[in-house]
């Protein structure tokens, strides 16, 4: 394969993409709906991830976590984002935490958001019921 | 805003060609920033030597080299162009 042919397989031209959305903006005492058109290149630094795009990943090397609240996040979503970030590394000593404030500590001490606890309780109840039914199944235990 | 430079490792944050595996998180290296024509003209007219240059418009596009995978959707077009 010539060098050109090899390059052609891996080179790619990234074009600008745009997204249209509406936001509510407070101007004076009134809230106005503003239409936003955002142009950007769909690229991010290779070593950078948002908490949500890191879900399900294991980061074997060191991880630097920015625990600060991203604009407008509710406490429950913030807790989830922090949970995702804190559970990506394999070892505690591989984590560097930025923005671990008293507020973050308080949030973590409060534990998972109520809706998540309720959901977990529901799932546990369902699992217990399934297990109970399974026990009365003749094939179980053979 | 993300500042880009040549040789910087980036990853795609959008699905660009799903049938070819150009999906989110694909890693690539920035090869060249294709400037807006007005910025390109300004750059070309600068005097030789080290200069700081700030683009005034969004670039036309960015050439990247995929780090894994050999499936650029532009393969045919590029080869055709280079052979002309």
Describe the protein.
- The complex is a heterodimer of chains A (142) and B (84).
- Chain A has 142 residues and is α+β, with helices and mostly antiparallel strands.
- Chain A has one domain (3-111).
- In chain A, a hairpin with a 2-residue loop joins strand 2 (17-27) and strand 3 (30-40).
- Chain A contains 4 helices and 6 strands; from the N terminus they run H-E-E-E-E-E-H-E-H-H.
- Chain B has one domain.
- Chain B has helices at residues 37-44, 75-83; strands spanning 9-12, 27-34, 61-66.
- The model of chain B has no long low-confidence stretch (mean pLDDT 82).
- Chain B is built from 2 helices and 3 strands.
- The interface between A and B is medium-sized, with 23 and 36 residues.
**What Rg of chain B is obtained from the alpha carbons, in whole angstroms?**
15 Å
% residues in beta strands of chain B: 15-25%
* Order of strands, widest sheet of chain A: 2-3
Radius of gyration of chain A: 23 Å
From the N-terminal CA to the C-terminal CA of chain A, the straight-line distance is 61 Å
Residue runs with pLDDT of under 50 for 5 or more positions of chain B:
none
List SSEs of chain B in N-to-C order. EEHEH
Stretches of chain A where pLDDT falls below 50 for ≥5 residues?
A: none
The number of strands of chain B is 3
- What's the end-to-end separation of chain B, in Å? 38 Å
Mean pLDDT of chain B: 82
Beta fraction of chain A: 25-35%
**How can the largest sheet of chain A be summarized?**
2 strands, antiparallel
**Quaternary structure classification:** heterodimer
- What's the shape of chain B? globular
